[in-house]
Structure formats: C-alpha cells, structure tokens
User: What shape does this take?
Amino acid sequence: MEKKKAIVIGAGVAGLAVSIRLVLQGFEVTIFESNWYVGGKLSEFQLDKYRFDAGPSLFTMPHLVEELFWIAGKKSEKFPFKKLDEVCRYFFPDGTKFIAPAEKEKLVEEIHFHLGEEKKVVEKYLERGKFKYETVGKLFLERCLRKPSTFLNKQALKAYLKINTLGLSTSLNSYNEATFKNPKTVQLFNRYATYNGSDPYQTPAIMSMIPHLEFGIGAFFPENGMIQISESIAKLAESLGVVIHLNAKVSGIKTENGKAIGLETEKGFCKADVVVSAVDVSQTYSKLLGMKGIGEKYLKLPKSTSAIIWYWGVKRKTEQTGLHNIFFSKDYKEEFQSLFKKKEMPNEPTIYLNISSKERIEDAPDYGENWFVMVNAPANEGQDWDNWIPATRKIVLKRLSQELGFDVEKEIEVETTLEPRTLESRTGAIGGALYGSNSNSQFAAFLRHANFSTEVKNLFFCGGTVHPGGGIPLALQSASIAADYVKACNF
Ligand SMILES: Cc1cc2nc3c(=O)[nH]c(=O)nc-3n(C[C@H](O)[C@H](O)[C@H](O)COP(=O)(O)OP(=O)(O)OC[C@H]3O[C@@H](n4cnc5c(N)ncnc54)[C@H](O)[C@@H]3O)c2cc1C
Assistant: This one.
C-alpha cells in the first residue's frame, strides 16, 4: 500500500521533531525549509577564531529531545550533554555577587548567606514551584487545551482543589514580593518571567514553577554546543527517511473543499495528505492561505520580548564570569515598563552574558572567550533601532567594564550583531519576538492557536507561536501534541 504523505513547513526544532513523530506513524515525510540550514533560531556561526550559537543558550528539559531518540529506537545515538553544577552568576548593581548552584539545598544556603532570606522560605517557594509544575504545568503544557478530556481527569481535579494556591490571579512580582524580604531575591525570581519573554509585573504567579525546571530538573549543556540539539534531531529525522529540502521557501498552502491538499514552493506544487505548519501561525493564515482575517487575529496577540545580541570575540579570559551570567539593572520595574508599555529600549537594561567557551574550549582561541551579550528589547514595530542599538551598546560596555574591571571595548577582536529586525528577516519571527506571544495575562494559554486548524482540514500546527508556547522545550511539546492529533485522525 502506498504511504500517506505528510509535508512540514519549516525545519526549526518543532518542524524536525514533528517530522520524526510522523515518519514513525508511517507517513512519508518531507520538510521544506527556506533557509540554507536546519534549526531555525537554533543555529551557529563562526566569526574568525570564535564559534557562536546564534540563538538559544540555555538547555532545559533534555528528556524531551531524548524522547525522540527513544521512540525511534535509537537511544544510543542521542548526543552527549552534561548537567551543570552552576546555573548562573548574578551581579547586582550594588556590588552583590552571587553564584546560583544547581543543587537545591546549596541554592537555599547561598540565598540565605548572600541575600539574607530564611532558608525555610526559599525551600517552600521552590517546593510550591515544583507542585505547580507537576499539577498545572504538565496539564497545560503536555496536552491540548481544546479537548474536554484535558480538564476532566484526576490530575485536573487535583489542580482545581488547589486553585487558590496556584497564583493565577496575582502577578509573579506580587507573589515574590509577598514571599521574600530582600528586593534582590524578588528580582532574582522575577527574572524567570523572561524565560518565555514575558513581564514579571504582569505575568501570573504560576510562572514561579519555572525555577523548578532549573533547580529541580536541571540546566544542561550539550557537549558540542546548542547547535548539537538541532543537528542531532535533523540527523535522526534523515536516518528515518525524512527528506529535508533546504533553500525551499513555501509560498502557499493549497486547499480544495476546505481541505489542505499540498504546498506551493518555488519548485512547483507538492501534494500531501497532511500539512504541518511549523512556522509563524499568523503568517501561515495571511501569507500561505490568504486568510488575512484569521492571520490578523493572531498577529495582534501581544508579542514576547525580542533582543539585541552582540557576539563578541574577546581576546581575554575572565575569571569572574561563568557560562551564564546576569548583570541586573537597578530598576527592574522601569525596565519592563519600557519593554512592554512604552515599547522602547530601557535606559538601563539587564545584561545576559553567555560564554560557551567556558564549557567548550574549542569555541574560542586559547587567549580569549566567545561572548554572547544579550539585552531584552521590545518586539519590532518600526522603532528607532538605528539610534537605539549603538546607544545601548555603549551602556552595556560601560556596565560590563565597571563590573569586570577592564575596558571591554578594547578587548573585542571581532563582532557582529543580531537585533529585532534581523531576527525577523532570518527566522520569520514576527517582530523578532523570541517566544511568539507573551504570557502577560492569565488567559494567554487559551488565546494561543491550537495545534490543528478548525478552518482548514488536514492542517496542523507546531512551533513557538502556537500552543503551548515558545522556547525549545515547549516547541518540542507542540510537535508531540500536533502528531497526536494527526494520529487521532486515522489517515
Ligand atoms: C536569541 C534567542 C535566544 C533564545 N534563547 C533561548 C533559550 O536560551 N532557551 C530556549 O529554550 N529557547 C530560547 N529561544 C527560543 C527558541 O529558540 C525558540 O522558541 C525555538 O527555537 C522555536 O523553534 P521553532 O521550531 O518553533 O521555530 P524556528 O526556530 O523559528 O523555525 C522556523 C523555521 O521555519 C522556516 N520558515 C519560515 N517561513 C518559511 C516558509 N515560508 N517556508 C519554509 N520555511 C520557512 C524558518 O527559516 C525557520 O528555520 C531563543 C531564541 C532566540 C532567537
């Protein structure tokens, strides 16, 4: 019997993951990717003697990648990664420095010692975060919110019984302020809102489950850098028979009697029984289906933060820094007001510095380090980036030089920049938003598009702009939910 054909649009992690799940369901799977490389936002580049991961730098929930190898029966082919002992180094503007260890007990000790919080308070906060993740988190992230069965089961019942303690009606910041006495601890735990590009002053306190991912499950580093995640999934997909066409932009989804029947590409029409869009949902409707009204609806969802990233090859080693480093701003509230209310660059941004050569020495020459320096930025709406980017660069250089005790600019050997406009043009992320729409409201999860289309039969969705949201783990979950839908349709 001839195999049914599935076509996937986009070879980001979500598109690659769904292709593996569909090939294992017995489909003949083809991916069309507009770029010349796979991985989408998860890519790498070389700048002289320095290698950089272009996008994600923090690897959490690795079991979601491992699962793809398990279900394919190729457990032994998964790539090597290590659990980090140290999660992040924090630098506060008043000179307080603090290293967050991965082990929960040690973290509690460190927060008690450096920030003066009661150990019991921190322990309880982390325990409640774990509970939230295991009840509501899993419920919302691993299942479809459009199925009644999601809300009618034992796990959901457990969540309803504890609804008052879950923090759906207060903001993450209010919850953290009510828990901790030191504003620095509040800032530290507010930061987790940015893990999906949201605002701690608006996002619900349920987000206090995110630290559990780092301190409960762990933060990891792939031995050959983040690129190994997308490369290894692509290799697995190809080994199972998935065909990946690069430099192959999809220009339309063809429908007949309300059913997706294939794709239009530069090379012509390609027929399919199932179409999975792993690209921006608003663009899928507006540009690929010509359904502008629905496209607009999803385009209007408030976007997550974007970013300005400077990739610097620095000809110097720094002892004070680790793999992940955060240099907090003085006024976090003002920073998020600028990002989300004014949609401007903050006067004083919090700086994230990632140095992968701390773990993978080949990423930089023996005298230097590869610095990935990122600040949050509002999603692009045509703001004055040409002035803001150099102005912010100066502020960032000044702060890093003060903290590290040398003139950073003088040590930069090579440099390139990624910013909201180039993020959009390179990955198709609207406004350069890193994580699709933000989670600033308690209804955000219900406003995201589902993993199937109610408008077009045989069309399914995965990726950072649909349920359950952005970030590598959620993009992988979306692929799993979309594949389950396809399976349930019995093609
Ligand atoms: C700078 C940065 C830092 C980040 N940091 C982290 C982090 O530390 N941890 C984390 O978990 N997440 C992080 N993220 C978010 C994470 O990268 C994304 O959520 C995730 O990679 C999204 O994967 P995706 O498959 O949904 O989409 P994408 O990676 O965007 O892939 C979509 C693909 O579709 C292709 N495409 C678009 N239109 C078409 C078309 N018409 N035809 C064919 N192909 C098309 C694109 O070229 C692209 O390859 C970060 C993102 C960025 C940009």
Notes: The two ends are 13 Å apart (CA to CA). The pocket of flavin-adenine dinucleotide is lined by residues 9-15, 32-35, 40-42, 55-58, 249-250, 278-279, 307, 309, 423, 427-429, 434-435, 463-464, 470-472, 475 (CB under 6 Å).
